[in-house]
Design goal:
Blueprint: H1 4-18, H2 21-24, E1 44-46, E2 62-66, E3 79-80, E4 84-85, E5 99-108, E6 113-132, E7 135-144, E8 148-159, E9 162-184, E10 188-196
Parallel strand pairs: 2-6, 3-8, 4-8
Antiparallel strand pairs: 1-2, 5-10, 6-9, 6-10, 7-8, 7-9
Length: 197
């Protein structure tokens, strides 16, 4: 029995020398939480405006760019039309069979000003903007197939949740892209753009 105790102690010491200390220590579990709606790291860049852009006020120097999910090529030189001052008009969404296109973008409050681009490339006669949350809107650019760009000036005003008429063109036009510069005042804000015929 006297030999058994020193032998057991030698085995225990040998095992502790051979087994790494990390395996015997209590492991600390690191939990990494991701925020819902944030899909990409924040990369700030300069706001790019093309020559002839009609808005002359001081615009945000840095933005977060959300590129279009669908790339659309405008084969004509861009011609900016005079800016339209936006009068927010609450609207009802047309029947489903009249909706030609829709897409959404979620912007996070931490992003600040976000430049969202929507590649549409379809014909219709009205654009609608659905805001789910609260947002400051700066401007929107609607680019048509002939190269004309209609700038809608939101004048950096805050807008509440609702469906608004963004732009009417009763003659029916082919819309290539819509670009919206906005900043969320909620934790996050979802912008949905619809094109109807």
């Amino acid at each position: 029995m006297k030999r058994l105790i020193p032998t057991a102690m030698c085995i225990a010491i040998a095992l502790t020398a051979l087994i790494p200390t990390e395996t015997m220590a209590q492991r600390r579990r690191v939990v990494v939480r991701t925020r819902v709606g944030v899909r990409r790291p924040l990369v700030r860049s300069r706001l790019v405006l093309y020559p002839g852009h009609p808005i002359r006020r001081l615009l945000p120097a840095e933005i977060v760019l959300h590129p279009a999910r669908r790339a659309v090529v405008v084969g004509r030189p861009l011609v900016f039309l005079p800016a339209l001052a936006w009068a927010p008009t609450i609207a009802t969404l047309p029947a489903q069979e009249r909706l030609v296109w829709q897409d959404s973008e979620t912007i996070d409050k931490e992003e600040g000003w976000v430049d969202s681009n929507f590649g549409i490339d379809s014909s219709g006669n009205a654009l609608f903007l659905d805001i789910d949350g609260k947002a400051h809107l700066n401007f929107a650019e609607v680019t048509f197939a002939n190269g004309n760009v209609q700038v809608v000036d939101f004048n950096e005003k805050k807008h509440e949740r609702g469906l608004y008429r963004l732009l009417d063109f009763a003659d029916g036009r082919h819309v290539k892209t819509v670009r919206i510069l906005a900043k969320s005042d909620s934790d996050d804000t979802k912008l949905v753009v619809y094109l109807s015929k």
